[in-house]
Design brief:
This protein folds into two domains: about 20-145 and about 290-345, Medium-chain alcohol dehydrogenases, catalytic domain (Quinone Oxidoreductase, Chain A, domain 1, Alpha-Beta Complex), CATH 3.90.180; about 150-285, Rossmann fold. Helix content is about 25%, strand content about 20%. It contains eleven helices and 13 strands. Strands 1, 2, 3, 4, 5, 12 and 13 form a seven-stranded mixed beta sheet that branches. A six-stranded parallel beta sheet has the order 8-7-6-9-10-11, sandwiched between helices.
Length: about 350
């Protein structure tokens, strides 16, 4: 990010490795919609010469003197969220907010990201994860952010066996929310999205019903399909500040609405008073940044290693040169109809 609305390649010094840290070189990288929010929606404010990117798998090239479990040459998964594990917030169970709101999100937020020849990872033993040999580098990139964010949506919603779930927004995060809800035992899953390719992949991950917002109000469509009854859980993985009102108006008393969508603009979120039971409907609304760190990455990698999760249908556009990165980034900005996720393979 050269500045607001401008990206390009620049020269920077190679990062310095601290005693607990690692320096890595990317093997595969992928742009994210968050990068688009940062550059073109100005979500984080004006930044200059900030290296973008928080989705990568990589090879370790240097480790600090205190690092025990990783060495140069290791292939690793890089989580998008790399907390400070000794922070009080981490000890309280909210590592993604270590040392302040959202401060576990460091790459392309409070420090340079992974779209570079070399990048820095803090607290390597806690924030790197070994890449199983059974997982190729292109698929592994999805473990950085897309898989854990979508699955976090299903976890926050506390999806249980038999639940009827609506996933609003079926880009890559929403698709992983569908997959996560199904793995947690959802019986019926409504997937809300307009692009055919996303609808098809949502069905691949277990969506039973497709709702196209271009065909009319999604609340009315869901209620019609449900015979007028509300749903158990709603996962918001797309939309805008008004999407919460739609979620409230389709969920049952005692239901849970989870949000993992990045709200990049606006000042307020509107909650409908009557739909929320005049404030007394026992409808929980919870939003959360995905957990980072080694344990989460390694647990999710097991799903791919043993064939429980196949992310390859999401990888619609593939590149193999570092210079292609800008083209991949602009794909995420422009979102052509055949796009779900681009990946740049540098291995």
């Amino acid at each position: 990010m050269i500045g607001l609305d401008k990206v390009g390649f620049i020269e920077k010094a190679k990062p310095i490795c601290g005693p607990n840290d690692a320096i890595c070189r990317p093997l595969a990288i992928s742009p994210c919609t968050s990068d688009i929010h940062t550059v073109w929606e100005h979500a984080l404010g004006d930044r200059h010469n900030l290296i973008l990117g928080h989705e990568a798998c990589a090879e370790v090239v240097e480790v600090g003197s205190m690092v025990k479990d990783f060495k140069p040459g290791d292939k690793v998964i890089i989580p998008a969220i790399t907390p400070d594990w000794q922070a009080v917030e981490s000890q309280a169970g909210f590592s993604m907010h270590s040392n302040g709101m959202l401060n576990g999100w460091k790459f392309s937020n409070v420090k340079d990201g992974v779209f570079a020849e070399f990048f820095h990872v803090n607290e390597a033993d806690g924030n790197l994860a070994h890449l199983p040999k059974e997982i190729n580098v292109e698929n592994a990139v999805m473990l950085s952010d897309m898989v854990p964010t979508g699955f976090h949506g299903a976890n926050l919603a506390e999806v249980e066996y038999g639940d009827i779930v609506v996933v609003i927004g079926i880009g890559p995060v929403g698709l992983m929310a569908v997959a996560g809800a199904v793995l947690r035992g959802a019986s019926r899953v409504f997937a809300v999205g307009s692009r055919q390719i996303c609808q098809d992949v949502a069905k691949f991950y277990g969506a039973t019903d497709i709702i196209n917002y271009r065909d009319g109000d999604i609340v009315a469509q869901v209620k019609e399909a449900m015979g007028g009854k509300p749903v158990d859980k709603v996962i918001i993985a797309g939309g805008d500040n008004d999407t919460f009102a739609q979620a409230v108006n389709m969920i049952k008393p005692g239901g849970i609405i989870s949000n993992v969508n990045y709200l990049g603009s606006g000042e307020f979120i509107n909650i409908p008073r009557v739909g929320w039971g005049l404030g007394m409907g026992h409808i929980r609304i919870v939003g959360g940044l995905m957990p980072g760190g080694r344990k989460n990455m390694e647990f999710l990698a097991r799903l791919m290693k043993y064939g429980r999760l196949d992310v390859s249908p999401m990888l619609t556009h593939k590149f193999n040169k570092f210079e292609d990165l800008e083209s991949a980034l602009l794909l995420m900005k422009n979102k052509p109809k055949d796009l779900i996720k681009p990946v740049v393979n540098l291995s």
